[in-house]
Amino acid sequence: LGSQELESTSYVTLPIEFDGITLEVDLFVVASEFMNTPVIVGTDVLNREGVRYVRTRDSQLLTRDTSGTDRVMNIRADTPILVNTPLVDDELQRLMAIINEFAPHFISGTAASTVNTGSMSIKLNSDVPVNYRPYRLSHAETLRVREIIKDLLDKGVIQESESDYASPILLVKKKDGSDRMCVDFRKLNDITVKDRFPLPRIDDHIDRLGRNKYFTSLDMATGFHQIPMEKDSVPLT
């Protein structure tokens, strides 16, 4: 006991609870004249593996040591959603019938048709025509612009004009490396009366979907060229 050797008359192993932790401890019995407390806990208990002894100014605490404990996570595998599932004969026939019915609407390049859901109208707050000189293009860009304009004229998307309004064009590269002809309408936009009607809220549209399970998105191949212009707005563009 301390630096003094004592002879124990007997010992017993009992479960003892320390701060909610139960440990099996060997208890050695000595004469009461050598003890001023009922029990003395030795360092062999405090330093036991899996136990941590915390001592502060006012208290002492024995806790479980979790520093070396591995965490086991319960991982649930989601059931895979098969998107490209094969069609049975009846479904394949129905799909081919739909594709054949709407074959004229599957296109590549510039669309020659327009939508019938509405038209574009431009209202100005000034009667002064907007016209600017063309932007400078390289020889290769000029040839490419001529090809694009010829294609649009042949398909009836645009028409020749002698309008007092003229906005410059420029070529912009698409992600696939091809050229997109853009019109710089910024000066025309400056004198255009803005449409103040608010756009629908996306979250409202999502709420309206309800419990529907199948969704699709429809887009115009060349939306800028497929929205018809009102007759009195054609000279502006």
UniProtKB/TrEMBL annotation:
* Superkingdom of the source species: Eukaryota
Q: Tell me, what is an example of a GO biological process annotation in this record? A: DNA biosynthetic process
Under the heading Gene3D superfamilies, the entry gives: 3.30.70.270, HIV Type 1 Reverse Transcriptase, subunit A, domain 1
Q: Where is the Reverse transcriptase domain?
A: 153-237
PROSITE patterns given in the database record = RT_POL (PS50878)
CDD domains documented for this protein = RT_LTR
Q: Record's InterPro entries?
A: DNA/RNA_pol_sf, Rev_trsase/Diguanyl_cyclase, RNA-dir_DNA_polymerase, RT_dom
Q: What is this protein called?
A: Reverse transcriptase domain-containing protein
